[in-house]
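Entry 14. Ran structure prediction on the chain below.
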Amino acid sequence: MTGLKAVFAIDSRGRTSMRIIFLLFLFCVFPGVLSAQIKAEHPRNCIFNVGPTEMMFSAFQEGKTDAIFCQHIDDVGSTMIILDARQAELNDMNIEAFIIKNLNQKDWRDDLIANTVAILPADKYLKRKNTVSFSHQFAKEGNYFIIVKATSDNGLKEYIGQYGFSVGESDQWRLVLGLLALVGGGVVFLAWKSWPRRPDTTPTQKGAVEALQRAETTEENSEIMRED
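Output, C-alpha cells:
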C-alpha cells in the first residue's frame, strides 16, 4: 500500500498547489484587487514638497465611493481635491493651485493655459484650519499633476510644489495590469512545467501495482490465518 499512497499523495499535493497558483493568478489579473491596494496606499505616498514645507494631497468622489484616493483616482466625474498643510509657515501665505494635464512636457509652464483644467485662485485658505479643498469635474481619463504656489504678502517668498496623479484607467495603469497578468501567467506556466507528474499507468506499471496489491492481500490473509 505504501506505493499507492505515495502516488495519491503526489497527485493530491499537485491539485492543491495548482489551485493555490490559480488563485494567485486571478489575484494578479483582477483589477479590483489592484484598485483596493491603491486605495489603501500609505499616506507618505500622498505627501509632496512645497518649497521647504510639505503638503498632503487626497481626493474623494462623493456619491460614488467612500474611498480616499491619492496617486490614482478611480473614475472621471466630480472630485473633491483636498490639500493639507503640514507646517504652520504656509498658513500666512497666499495659496494658489492649478490642475494640469500631464503630457510629458519638460516644464509645467509649457502651454500652461491650454493644459490647465482647473484653477484655485490665490488666497489665504490655510489661515484658519491648515487645509483647503475644491471640487473639479474630470471629463477625461489620463495623467495629471497639481501645481501649488505659496506666496508671501510682500512677494519675497514663493514656494512651488508639484504632485502627479492619474484619473481612470490611464495608459500607466493599463501597463501595470498587463505586467501583472504577464507575471501571473509566467508563474502558472513555470509551476505547471516543474511540478512532479503523476506516474503514467502503462500496462507494465498496472501489472506492478496489481502484483503489489495481491502480495499485500496475501500477507494480510497469512497474518489472519496465523492469528486463528
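The first helix runs from residue 2 to 29. Will compare against last week's run tomorrow.
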